[in-house]
Queue: 2 jobs
Job 1
Amino acid sequence: DTEVTQTPKHLVMGMTNKKSLKCEQHMGHRAMYWYKQKAKKPPELMFVYSYEKLSINESVPSRFSPECPNSSLLNLHLHALQPEDSALYLCASSPAGETQYFGPGTRLLVL
Amino acid sequence: QKEVEQNSGPLSVPEGAIASLNCTYSDRGSQSFFWYRQYSGKSPELIMSIYSNGDKEDGRFTAQLNKASQYVSLLIRDSQPSDSATYLCAVIHMEYGNKLVFGAGTILRVKS
């Protein structure tokens, strides 16, 4: 089973709202990732957690705040986003930092 | 030079033909290579991984790797309309802290 789940599937939020994206995997993978994907572009890495510790932050604005409460769960907290942050947000997990398996994504629209 | 380069396409092939998708990469130290398929509005789906020079076959898909030429390809035999998607080549880029670096993707259209 290589399933990564993400909730919600769709999210519409105003620029003053606070919301969170959730990602879960029960495959025992030790690395988890957040990507952002704009239309007709490849996924763009945002954050990497390895063994529940933040190992890579790709200079993402502070309005995006990741959290890894445990080895199966990854959150992305959103606050004061801009319309240009509208995108597909993808979570992925990997057994040991190699092959990555993506979740279905959350499509975010910021108004 | 981009880290991972692909022809954006679209690549159009008739149903039943072989589709050939190509990718070049810049990091000579890279050891791990992946092909993902992405349907419009969906997330990337892993279809092949390859680590050694040569061919790796899985059903209708064959991945080919040539590290000396820094080249990886994906062949899809007996192409079906359901294969129409964007194919993303991805490489573990050692120079960038073992990040997975994606090419821009090649759009494949299989015409029935």
Job 2
Amino acid sequence: QSVLTQPPSVSGAPGQRVTISCTGSSSNIGAGYDVHWYQKLPGTAPKLLIYGNDNRPSGVPDRFSGSKSGTSASLAITGLQAEDEADYYCQSYDSSLSGDVVFGGGTKLTVL
Amino acid sequence: EVQLVESGGGLVQRGGSLRLSCAASGFRFNYYSMIWFRQAPGKGLEWVSYISGRSETIFYADAVKGRFTISRDNAKNSLYLQMNSLRDEDTAVYYCARAAGGSNYFDHWGQGTLVTVSS
């Protein structure tokens, strides 16, 4: 059971917009800790997609955007492309746990 | 270019030991905190252990506390994870990652090394 809750799967057709939610609690996202997002393709290393709730590292297309409100955060992907098919993980920090970085369980994005 | 390359994974018997290494290049290694993560088959990402740039601060996840030891050799630009008393549930791909300076996110990850614990 992950500390942060994500839907197991989402899907969309090429060109569409999809969102992935990440729900936490008052000891992590709701406490003001930032949310970060990673993209993971099978057999590859996780790649930082969004940091600090809504910032994109250099090289990440602006089709990817993040937001945070209250105890939740969201990742939005517009103009869906076949290569976006991957697992997406949200990550934050939890003050109720000793030095704990916490992740969501991951969301499998399928491009139809 | 930042590169992180893990090694040392393999098949080990339950109760056995293994030492993972992570070779870093392309950045000032001693400036950055490093962390080990893992992903068990069919499961999500889980943090395992954290070490600050000069090894002053070390954390372990409860699941590995007392069994795993994280260390680093800044002269060799290398990070290590000594894993003892391995259990079935330690079977996973282990990743090393760099903590972005002053933040709790991780901007570069290695490709991972598979550890399989067998009875």
